[in-house]
Amino acid sequence: MSNQAAWITEAKAKPLQVKEAPMPKAGKGEVVVKNHAVAVNPVDWKIQDYGIFLQKYPNICGTDVAGEVHEVGEGVTHVKKGDRVLGHAFSLVTNNPAQGGFQLYTACNSLVVAKIPDSLDYNAAAVLPLAISTASACLFKKETLALPLPSNDAKPSTSGKSVLIWGGSSSIGAVAIQLAVGAGVKVVSVASKHNLEKLKEMGASAAFDYNSPSVTDDIVAALEGTDYAGVSDCIGTPDAAKAWAPIYKKLGGRYGSVMPGAEGVPEGIEGASVFAPSVALDDKYIGDVVWAKWVPEALESGKLKALPPPIVIEGGLGAVQKGYDKQKKGVSFGKIVVAL
């Protein structure tokens, strides 16, 4: 049995090189996943274009994997060999290639590995892991919006709280809507006009076209009478912050942003940018509820849907570079997934 990976051989190297890779071993609290599908995120091509984040080369990027459990390490009891799972790969934290997603076998922190139902195919499952961790950090961290954690009760108790999810049709926004609904929080969201109905189908009480001249007034009206927590900015650009700043000026609230060191946020607002892996590390109290309990049950019950849908590229590891290039051009309510 051998492993192969799509390596980034040095800073800014193109294209990725498919070559043999060491076979990962499951350390204590780890799961090795035999990958069937991996997803591409904007961070991946940005690392390649700008030489950011990675501290050493050659290395293996990729954060979203779906496949079957190949090996479990000491202390892992919630999954066993052969189980169908999705997982969040942490090579961006550890700089350890064994923990990168773009290979046939990946070692994952067991807390961010969850079983998936037989009805969910691997390509669809691969859209979720990074989005689950990022959206959870934006919504639930004490330093961000500090919303109540989700529960799998048949009808979650209404918290009375509300949240604005900016960019609800992005992969993180789609999961953020579903997580907030699972926490009994009223969701108001924005996206492009053609995606608004999809946001409502995922549970948003109201959804608005962010290009509409009345978007600020519409959002404020939709949030009236609620305990407004703030904005989960799932886009994270200065333009996005500028667009939701008028809501802060009228309603106050905090923010959580997906962009490290988010720029352009309104002066005086409290909140933070998030680092997704924190939900299994410094903010493990989030992972213990969201990943360990809510995700597997919500996938089984249908409360958590694998959205936006995968845009599948066939061709195995050799097609990962093609995935980078396609992602860089931009996608609307979809996520690039490479089938292995």
From TrEMBL:
Name a GO molecular-function annotation. oxidoreductase activity, acting on NAD(P)H
Report the CDD domains cross-referenced here. enoyl_reductase_like
Q: Which UniProt keywords apply?
A: Oxidoreductase
Keyword Cell cycle tagged: no
Q: Which residues form the Enoyl reductase (ER) domain?
A: 12-338
Q: What top-level branch of life does the organism fall under?
A: Eukaryota
PANTHER family reported in the protein's UniProt record: HYPOTHETICAL OXIDOREDUCTASE (EUROFUNG), ZINC-TYPE ALCOHOL DEHYDROGENASE-LIKE PROTEIN C2E1P3.01
Give the family this protein belongs to, as stated in its UniProt record.
Belongs to the zinc-containing alcohol dehydrogenase family.
Instruction: Spell out the subunit comment.
Output: Monomer.
What protein name does the entry list?
GroES-like protein
Species of origin reads Setomelanomma holmii
